[in-house]
Amino acid sequence: AKNPVRVLVTGAAGQIGYALVPMIARGAMLGPDQPVILHMLDIEPAAEALNGVKMELIDAAFPLLKGVVATTDVAEACKDVNIAVMVGGFPRKEGMERKDVMSKNVSIYKAQASALEKHAAPDCKVLVVANPANTNALILKEFAPSIPEKNITCLTRLDHNRALGQISERLDVHVSDVKNVIIWGNHSSTQYPDVNHATVTTSSGEKSVREIVTDDNWLNSEFITTVQQRGAAIIKARKLSSALSAASSACDHIRDWVLGTPKGTWVSMGVYSDGSYGIQEGLIYSFPVTCEKGEWSIVQGLKIDEFSRAKMDATAKELAEEKSLAYSCLN
Length: 331
Ligand code: NDP
Description:
This protein is of the alpha/beta class. The chain is built from eleven helices and 14 strands. The chain has helices spanning 15-25, 47-59, 74-78, 98-119, 133-142, 157-171, 209-212, 216-228, 230-238, 244-259, 306-330; strands spanning 5-10, 36-41, 65-71, 83-86, 125-128, 152-154, 178-179, 182-184, 192-194, 199-202, 205-208, 267-272, 284-292, 295-298. The strands form four sheets. It has a six-stranded parallel β-sheet. α1 (15-25) links the parallel β1 (5-10) and β2 (36-41). α1 (15-25) packs across α10 (244-259) and α5 crosses α11 (306-330). The longest helix has 25 residues, at 306-330. NADPH dihydro-nicotinamide-adenine-dinucleotide phosphate is lined by residues 10-11, 13-17, 42-43, 46, 87-92, 108, 129-131, 133, 158, 231, 241-243, 246.
């Protein structure tokens, strides 16, 4: 039998955490034959609720779940973890300025970076979910210099899946027949959902989405804004932000990263830019990636038209601004 993998979830008593931990315990993240030990971290005010989640995990009698650590101690939570899913963060409340939230999250991610650096397994893979996800991941990377930069990523897979979902609804085809959309840039409303390379499997073979969706107007405007603003639409409908879809996409992100993307398919991940596609180095930016043997690589050589270029640059510009705001909070 395989040795258990230790998976950390921060903010585990929150709503994404509550949806995510049972998925991990059922094998949705690491596969149906991979035992796991869950490490759940939350802050003191949530300690009792966190313990309640632990009780429910025990009650669910998951065969793959070999242990549960529920704690408010960051060092204990990070001890020997192989995967870290960072969901905990300070939410933006009414009347708060961007800078206020940024400064709170910068200090949280700085502290958690140090804890991971000291206590996590040396090959630990990190996925940041909490917003501003790209910039939190960048701060984490800066303050955990011994963790390879390739191991620090942020979540844009939910946006990617939302884009697949919109195409599938529009064409009335199954979502698994749609692939290779791209989310470029920031996990924010400046993200650019790009369908120029996306395809649909039909009874007469693989067709490009541009070829089948003849309404360019829809693809170039409504499709993009629907994906960008889907989070707000969910909040309006549910009076709560998305949680089950966020949790599910976090599992997709880690699963594909660890176990590999299917041949001919790419996914979107926020990763440390190496300058690909003219995106400045030193930002955590969402790119199309394929994964093999636990390593992602950016898909190269895609043709970028003028429309895409402008949108890719606009979201990079926002990330550069967030980065300088984050650094100003450090001082
Ligand atoms: P959620 O579980 O709903 O969300 C957690 C984080 O994920 C938020 O930052 C949220 O951003 C972000 N997020 C990223 N992508 C998405 C998405 N697509 N949909 C929804 N959220 C997304 O928040 P809760 O308040 O329920 O839980 C947060 C937990 O974190 C709590 O248990 C709390 O105790 C803990 N916490 C930990 C802190 C720490 O570690 N120091 C500090 C503060 C809280 P957004 O806010 O923009 O929706």
